[in-house]
Amino acid sequence: MVSLAIESLGADLDRRPVLHAVSARLEPGVLTGVIGPNGAGKSTLVRAMLGLVPARSGTVRIDGQDIAAIAPRALARTIAYLPQGQTLHWPLTVARLVELGRLPHLGPLSRVGAEDRRAVEEAMARADVLHLAHRIATELSGGERARVMLARALAVGAPGLVVDEPLAALDPGHQIDVMELLAREARAGALVVAVLHDLTMAARYCDRLLLLDGGRLVAEGTPAEVLSPERLRQVYGITARIDLAGPAPMVVPTGRQS
After folding, report:
1. Which of 37, 111, 156, 248 has the highest local Cβ count within 10 Å?
2. DSSP letters of 77-139?
3. Based on the structure, what is the number of domains in the chain?
């Protein structure tokens, strides 16, 4: 299991301040959703906390160790990362593409072994793409490609998983499948962080939410603590019908706040 602590994290993009003094603690066994309007800094936050965007200020520690002191391959074995909007350029089979998730475990001249193949097959099964194993990845639909890329991240076998907009291009059924998969990963003890736009999915599946606005963390807590009508008006500029007490929590935008 792995934990991650963010302290007063600030970051810039193209010399423009994007994150401002964000602090949070991410724990194993918890599915944490990062939500907020477009341009709030969600993707920058997850990239900065993985060292992919340099920090202007603050620290990120994984199990108490500063992320800057962790070798890239070791970090890749610890937290698997699925960025948004990945484009496939090479006509690899799905099985070969998912095998790339095992690279952090392989040396420069190493070959994929039996343990790697088991991890790949298990990851494809969990992402519901095992039946696509011999298809060419560049010929898949957008939803199929999204699930294949998720399988590649799962194939790493890391105790942490960070996914940025994993529901993009997925039909409603596969959106549910992906969220249930992420919830199962968390229940099994993994640290799971997902950047989400769908507030109903965030309310239904996430244990905790980080709400960003203007690069600042404006609320943190359970969905019931974060998704209040007042906060949705302030942050998203919307009115919404909110039902978080039933067996299927729901947040339905009903209009723009005038």
Report:
1. 156
2. HHEEEE-SS----S--BHHHHHHGGGGGGS-TT----HHHHHHHHHHHHHTT-GGGTTSBGGG
3. 1
Q: Taking a C-beta distance cutoff of 8 angstroms, is the pair 169, 142 a contact?
A: yes
Residue 57: domain span: 4-256
Of 185, 166, 173, nearest to 86 by C-alpha is 166
> Are 5 and 179 contacting, i.e. CB atoms less than 8 angstroms apart?
no
User: The whole model's pTM is what?
Assistant: 0.93
* Residues with Cβ within 8 Å of residue 12, at least 6 apart in sequence: 18, 56
CATH number at 156 reads: 3.40.50.300
Per-residue pLDDT tens for 190-245?
999 999 999 999 999 999 999 999 999 999 999 999 999 999 999 999 999 999 98
Residue 52 token pair: 């992919």
- pLDDT at site 109: 66
What's the pLDDT tens digit per position in 172-190?
A: 988 998 999 999 999 999 9
H-type helices in the chain, by residue range?
42-49, 72-78, 94-99, 114-126, 142-155, 172-187, 199-205, 223-226, 229-236
Specify the range with the lowest mean pLDDT, choosing from 45-54, 72-81, 92-101, 139-148. 139-148
- The one-letter code for the residue type at 232 is L
Distance, in Å, from the CA atom of 7 to the CA atom of 58, rounded to the nearest integer, reads: 5
CA 213/CA 37 separation, integer angstroms: 7
